[in-house]
């Protein structure tokens, strides 16, 4: 049973000194009622509570899931006492309209429970507590009319059968550690269900060897664990412990008590929170609960995550792998690390080759660091670029820091593709020439001839020419340049605005210049052209993109433009 206490512990306390003492008979499963030690003359709510104890001399025990049937005369007063051994949602239903007031643990602070929607067998004035903590609840009832009254206490929320309550919520929790400042920024996505009336509460639990993680299946268990860490603060303000938790106004930052392991922070509709005074080298478990304002504060679990509050280590890069990295970090800078392998077969001075491809053609800079000292850097570049780092130490770890060349480029510099190799050639990637520019040699009404420098790679290699049609309403090449798209022929044809593609083997020319003529172009249209180098096995690499603007009028077939 959730509630069961004999009548002797529920007797009316008349003496003011006896109000501060424990009941005569105390069940081991129920905590002793905590009374406020404030003098009655300084706490008007306690005076009213004591007066009601004297006026309501008719006492009745109330148990969970056990209805009580009584007959009341008009204006008759009745006191019900309910003891809970465990925290649970609580609904108290009345079959007839009555005046009622509820107090928790003899503290003299009246609770403000929400009202249950009236229905069959449920009258106006029924109460609901989304989370009723362990302890004693005094319910004072005043009959408005003569007749029979049924009082029913249920250990459930009136909206417990909401169909979406047990649905899956795919909500991600993101964190950012500031270990030196002992701060953590927590962000999460909004609820997928009724987001316009959903408030949020974050339960933070610090994990250690002495205090393993407590599993909270509902919000009431978290509130109970939080309130058990410290005794109730004597107060004359109305409301119980739960109202003090989610009734506090949301704040941009909250300081956690390092002496406590469980904390609850309610943020209202805000979906981010700054936490301060965290302990370094500790693990924290985060539980996110939603509070449905349109369903009598129904609580539901949304997401959970575990965070190691330690200094974030840079992502380690792998050799011979073309990786797409995010560089749009704080202040537009992002750091990654790589380790030089222990090589003994390499002849001469050890080196590392870096291939850098800005995805959107944005202008970025790169710095190479070792033990916070700069050992190399590049100028601003916006197309595929190689870097050869000499004098590296085998077995040592280096850092690669990306940053935009200026503030305007920070809006576009979001991603970059990086490949590392301690060998002269990349195994699965073709070699691009030093100059990756694609030239517009000649443009006619419906055709264009382009040229580019051939690859110095001696392996079997081919070229693909890929054409995209730029929409007429937006001819900005900045919005459509993407060096990080999948240039495999079968996949690139699925991209939006794809127009035409052809692939061929390399040409044998003494100056190593490749040319190609693109046919069937529309006058007045604009096109974005990519040239890719392809090995028989591996990933293609793009040259610098070229934009073609075709003339809107063509006088005759001999009209052409030279560049």
UniProtKB/TrEMBL annotation:
Pinpoint the Neuron-derived neurotrophic factor first Fn(III) domain residues: 184-308
- Alphabetic keyword roster: Glycoprotein, Repeat, Secreted, Signal
- Point out the coiled-coil segments of this chain: none
Q: Which domain of life is it from?
A: Eukaryota
Has UniProt tagged this entry with the keyword Repeat?
A: yes
Q: Read off the InterPro entries from this record.
A: FN3_sf (IPR036116), NDNF (IPR019326), NDNF_C (IPR045805), NDNF_Fn(III)_1 (IPR055271)
Entry's localization field: Secreted
Q: Which SUPFAM superfamilies match?
A: Fibronectin type III (SSF49265)
Q: Name one GO cellular component term.
A: extracellular region
Protein NDNF C-terminal domain: from which residue to which, for each copy?
413-549
The protein in question is named Protein NDNF
């Amino acid at each position: 049973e959730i509630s069961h206490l004999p009548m002797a512990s529920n007797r009316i306390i008349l003496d003011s000194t006896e109000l501060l003492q424990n009941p005569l008979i105390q069940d081991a499963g129920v905590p002793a009622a905590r009374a406020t030690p404030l003098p009655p003359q300084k706490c008007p709510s306690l005076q009213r509570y004591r007066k009601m104890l004297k006026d309501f001399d008719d006492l009745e025990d109330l148990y969970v899931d056990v209805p009580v049937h009584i007959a009341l005369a008009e204006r008759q007063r009745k006191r019900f006492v309910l003891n809970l051994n465990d925290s649970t949602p609580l609904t108290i239903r009345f079959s007839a309209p009555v005046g009622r007031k509820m107090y928790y643990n003899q503290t003299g602070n009246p609770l403000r429970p929400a009202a249950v929607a009236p229905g069959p067998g449920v009258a106006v004035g029924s109460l609901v507590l989304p989370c009723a903590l362990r302890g004693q609840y005094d319910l004072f009832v005043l009959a408005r009319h003569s007749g029979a009254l049924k009082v029913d206490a249920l250990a459930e929320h009136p909206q417990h059968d909401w169909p979406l309550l047990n649905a899956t919520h795919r909500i991600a929790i993101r964190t950012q550690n500031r270990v030196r400042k002992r701060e953590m920024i927590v962000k999460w996505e909004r609820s997928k269900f009724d987001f316009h009336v959903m408030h949020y509460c974050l339960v933070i639990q610090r994990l250690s060897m002495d205090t393993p993680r407590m599993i909270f299946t509902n919000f009431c268990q978290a509130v109970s664990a939080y309130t058990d860490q410290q005794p109730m603060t004597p107060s004359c303000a109305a409301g119980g412990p739960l109202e003090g938790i989610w009734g506090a106004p949301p704040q941009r930052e909250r300081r956690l008590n390092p002496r406590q392991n469980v904390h609850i922070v309610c943020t209202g509709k805000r979906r981010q929170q700054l936490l301060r005074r965290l302990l370094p080298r500790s693990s924290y478990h985060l539980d996110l609960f939603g509070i449905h304002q349109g369903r009598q504060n129904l609580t539901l679990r949304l997401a959970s995550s575990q965070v190691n509050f330690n200094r974030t280590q840079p992502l380690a890069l792998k050799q011979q792998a073309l990786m797409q990295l995010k560089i749009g970090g704080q202040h537009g800078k992002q750091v990654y690390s790589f380790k030089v392998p222990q090589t003994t077969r390499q002849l001469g001075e050890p080196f590392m080759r870096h291939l850098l491809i800005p995805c959107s053609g944005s202008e970025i800079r790169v710095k190479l660091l070792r033990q916070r000292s700069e050992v190399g850097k590049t100028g601003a570049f916006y197309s595929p670029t190689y870097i050869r780092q000499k004098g590296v130490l085998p077995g040592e770890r280096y850092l690669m820091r990306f940053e935009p060349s200026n503030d305007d480029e920070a809006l576009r510099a979001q991603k970059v593709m990086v490949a590392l190799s301690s060998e002269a050639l990349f195994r699965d990637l073709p070699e691009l020439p030093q100059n990756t520019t694609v030239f517009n040699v000649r443009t006619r009404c419906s055709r264009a001839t382009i040229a580019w420098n051939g690859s110095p790679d001696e392996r079997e290699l081919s070229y693909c020419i890929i054409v995209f049609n730029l929409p007429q309403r937006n001819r900005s090449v900045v919005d459509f340049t993407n060096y990080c798209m999948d240039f495999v022929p079968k996949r690139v044809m699925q991209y939006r605005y794809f127009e035409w593609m052809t692939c061929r083997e390399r040409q044998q020319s003494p100056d190593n210049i490749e040319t190609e003529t693109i046919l069937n172009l529309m006058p007045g249209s604009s096109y974005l052209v990519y040239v890719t180098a392809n090995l028989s096995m591996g990933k293609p690499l793009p040259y610098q993109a070229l934009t073609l603007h075709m003339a809107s009028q063509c006088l005759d077939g001999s009209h052409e433009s030279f560049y």
